[in-house]
């Protein structure tokens, strides 16, 4: 039996972009599905298995930010890479804040897009294969990286994006050790681009909120001035 190809859902109202990206994906041994608005995207997700979503921010009706937020409410949804316009940095930041795993700026190069898709898929595959088995306990929290979930002392479950999951995993495996952005990139198998380096701050800001860590005076993930960040709690692994 042949290996099942990775299915990627392209959501963009520009039919020419959908066609070009679809051809690129097919040439790189992926299977592509296209949607031109939010309702079409949700219908395609319901119809068949999707392994990753390419989601344009500027869509008619419900925009990409709203759709990303909606998808992230379901922990079983696939990873999301946002497609954003060149001069809309605020949209890229907001996209990461609502749970996107990465973003690509239009116009993008073929190699960059394929590299980012493969990087996100590698992180998800590592988690699904059980490399991150077990639970991590700290300060009243249980962290289950294989399920990409946080559970608080009242048993409330909070879902994490794959990027948030990888960053938190790097912290709990290195408690009380200052980690620079470069070191976090290395530990999370992330990209070495300056763009992602800046986005780490957005992921950590979102993690702090999910951990109920005071943004002005965080106690769990502290800023280590001049060296990056430090996870302050003792961690127990079970």
Automatic annotation (TrEMBL):
DNA-binding region boundaries: 133-233
Record domain OmpR/PhoB-type: where: 133-233
Domain Response regulatory: 7-121
Stored Gene3D superfamilies: 3.40.50.2300, 6.10.250.690, Winged helix-like DNA-binding domain superfamily/Winged helix DNA-binding domain
InterPro entries, alphabetized: CheY-like_superfamily (IPR011006), OmpR/PhoB-type_DNA-bd (IPR001867), Sig_transdc_resp-reg_C-effctor (IPR016032), Sig_transdc_resp-reg_receiver (IPR001789), WalR-like (IPR039420), WH-like_DNA-bd_sf (IPR036388)
A GO biological-process term: regulation of DNA-templated transcription
Positions of modified residues (4-aspartylphosphate): 56
SUPFAM superfamilies: C-terminal effector domain of the bipartite response regulators, CheY-like
Record keywords, A-Z: DNA-binding, Phosphoprotein, Transcription, Transcription regulation, Two-component regulatory system
Coiled coil: none
Any one of the GO CC terms: protein-DNA complex
UniProt-recorded Gene Ontology molecular function terms: phosphorelay response regulator activity; transcription cis-regulatory region binding
A Pfam family recorded for this sequence: Trans_reg_C
Protein's recorded name: Response regulator
């Amino acid at each position: 039996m042949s290996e099942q190809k990775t299915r990627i859902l392209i959501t963009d109202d520009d039919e020419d972009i959908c066609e070009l990206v679809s051809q690129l994906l097919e040439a790189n041994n992926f299977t592509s599905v296209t949607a031109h608005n939010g309702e079409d995207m949700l219908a395609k997700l319901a119809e068949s298995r999707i392994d990753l979503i390419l989601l344009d921010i500027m869509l008619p009706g419900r925009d990409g930010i709203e759709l990303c937020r909606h998808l992230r409410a379901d922990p079983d949804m696939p990873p999301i890479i946002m497609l954003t316009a060149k001069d809309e940095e605020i949209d890229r930041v907001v996209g990461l804040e609502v749970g996107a795993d990465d973003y690509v700026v239009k116009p993008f190069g073929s190699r960059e897009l394929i590299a980012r898709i493969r990087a996100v898929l590698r992180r998800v595959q590592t988690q699904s294969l059980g490399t991150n088995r077990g639970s991590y306990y700290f300060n009243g929290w249980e962290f289950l990286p294989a399920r990409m979930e946080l559970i608080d002392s009242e048993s409330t479950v909070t879902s994490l994006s794959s990027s948030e999951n990888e960053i938190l995993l790097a912290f709990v495996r290195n408690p009380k050790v200052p980690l620079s952005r470069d070191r976090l990139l290395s530990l999370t198998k992330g990209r070495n681009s300056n763009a992602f380096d800046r986005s780490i701050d957005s992921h950590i800001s979102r993690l702090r909120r999910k951990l109920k860590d005071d943004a002005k005076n965080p106690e769990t993930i502290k800023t280590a001035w001049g060296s990056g960040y430090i996870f302050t709690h003792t961690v127990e692994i079970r």
